[in-house]
Automatic annotation (TrEMBL):
Membrane topology: Multi-pass membrane protein
Compartments, as annotated in UniProt: Cell inner membrane
Keyword entries, A-Z: Cell inner membrane, Cell membrane, Membrane, Transmembrane, Transmembrane helix, Transport
The protein's name: TRAP transporter small permease protein
Membrane spanning residue stretches: 12-33, 45-63, 84-104, 124-143
Record GO cellular component, one term: plasma membrane
Assembly and binders: The complex comprises the extracytoplasmic solute receptor protein and the two transmembrane proteins.
Function: Part of the tripartite ATP-independent periplasmic (TRAP) transport system.
Pfam families, alphabetized: DctQ
Length: 158
């Protein structure tokens, strides 16, 4: 039996992000209920962790061939399967490349300007640097999935 395709690093990142978001949100609700005050940092941390969760989840979905795509053209034109798969890969690379470029540029500017987050006063680049890093990880998983589809190691249908 073949080993299932997975992205363990991203799966752990997504799980940790979801658990931490849940815990700090619950703690904030409980504290607000009993004290009429709230933790100021929860929104800032939650938004950051949602970005991690989104990209890590997209990477897991990409690697396991469960990411959304339109397979109608592949089914209608089976002879064009390979060029269509390559076109899908190219479109993904284009989008992820833009995310890496602009996300990296944004992180660099935040680093240069020494801007700080409003809630905790932490350097903003600590939050933003994850955008291009995780987009690169999604690119790696996209490429792995594309190669596996082209070689027939995974089904075209999720």
């Amino acid at each position: 039996m073949s080993k299932p395709i997975d992205a363990p690093l991203e799966r752990v990142l997504a799980t940790l992000a979801l658990v931490i978001i849940s815990l700090i949100s619950l703690a904030n609700v409980v504290v607000r209920y009993f004290t009429d005050a709230s933790f100021a940092f929860t929104e800032e941390i939650s938004v950051f962790l949602l970005v991690i969760l989104t990209f890590a989840g997209a990477s897991v979905a990409m690697r396991s061939n469960r990411h959304i795509r339109i397979g109608l053209l592949e089914r209608l034109f089976p002879r064009l399967r390979t060029p269509l798969i390559l076109l899908q890969w190219l479109a993904g690379v284009l989008v992820l490349g833009l995310v890496c470029w602009f996300g990296g540029q944004f992180a660099w500017e935040e680093f240069q300007w020494d801007s700080e987050s409003p809630g905790l006063g932490l350097p903003n680049w600590w939050y933003v640097i994850w955008l291009p890093i995780l987009a690169l990880l999604v690119f790696v998983r996209l490429t792995q999935m594309t190669v596996d589809r082209l070689r027939g190691r995974i089904s075209d249908e999720p």
